[in-house]
Design brief:
alpha+beta; Thrombin, subunit H; Pdz3 Domain; 2 domains
Length: 269
């Protein structure tokens, strides 16, 4: 397992082991949306394998050990603790991904990407990813449970399908809406409710087809109250391609019920 961005656009992949042996690697599968990839090597014998743990058991304050080659320094180990859990990719600054990261203060730099994040028992709890060049004292790892979910599909060379609606959005509270409406420079009035504010609707997307507009506030999906952008994204991720969702939106003083049929997200856009 490694990061998709590690093998992105690579004509050749070489895997070097700690004992100095090198092997030609074959990329079996890549999923850009979760930044995961599988590389296969033919080593001709048994190799030491790190046991996979469970990221669902990880708690804030647990020890975290990152292994990799940061900045070209081979076989480097850094130690820290788990700083927080379920740090969304949108919060980290990469809204085109769909991930909830493990955040740690173990040093993770370029070269750590694709390496393991271990617990104090040597079990892999995450896959390190150096995604923020300006990160100082914090690092991020993809939870191993997420990687387990799609490993079989990537190993067989299959694609991982991700449903999407096609909106750019931010979490909205009634207080934030009120403050925006009181701002004389505000571009439009926002319904003063809790939900998710649609900032942009992508052309030719399911949301555009269904009639969702910029400035709408999504308050419910299939009868479930929506209170954050992360919640909405996770809910959509758990649906099927082509599933019809009943989306309740507030548009000015109007309350509308729209039917949105999810489509497959292509690449990482």
């Amino acid at each position: 397992m490694t990061n998709a961005h590690v093998v992105d656009n690579a004509d050749k992949v070489t895997v070097r082991l700690k004992d100095g042996r090198t092997f030609e690697g074959k990329v079996q599968g890549v999923d850009e949306v979760t930044d995961l990839a599988i590389v296969k090597i033919n080593a001709g014998g048994n190799l030491p394998v790190a046991p996979l743990g469970s990221s669902s058991n990880v708690q804030v304050g647990d020890w975290a050990i990152a292994v990799g080659n940061p900045l070209g320094f081979d076989n480097t180990v850094t130690l820290g603790i788990v700083s927080t859990l379920r740090r969304s990719s949108a919060q980290v600054g990469i809204p085109d991904k769909r991930l909830d990261f493990i955040q740690t203060d173990a040093a993770i730099n370029p070269g750590n990407s694709g390496g393991p994040l271990l617990n104090d028992r040597g079990e892999v709890i995450g896959i390190n990813t150096a995604i923020r060049a300006d990160a100082m004292g914090i690092g991020f790892a993809i939870p191993i449970d997420k990687a387990k979910q799609i490993t079989a599909q990537l190993q067989s060379g299959g694609k991982v399908a991700h449903p999407y609606l096609g909106v750019q959005m931010v979490t909205l509270t009634s207080q934030l809406a009120k403050e925006s409406n009181n701002d004389p420079n505000s571009q439009f009035l926002i319904p003063e409710v809790n939900g998710v504010l649609v900032m942009r609707v992508l052309p030719n997307s399911p949301a555009a087809t269904a009639g969702i507009r910029r400035g709408d506030v999504i308050t419910q999906i299939d009868g479930q109250a929506i209170t954050s952008a992360e919640q909405l994204q996770n809910l959509v991720e758990d649906t099927r391609i082509g599933q019809v969702l009943q989306v309740k939106v507030q548009r000015g003083s109007q309350t509308l019920q729209l039917s949105v049929r999810t489509a497959e997200l292509k690449g990482a856009s």
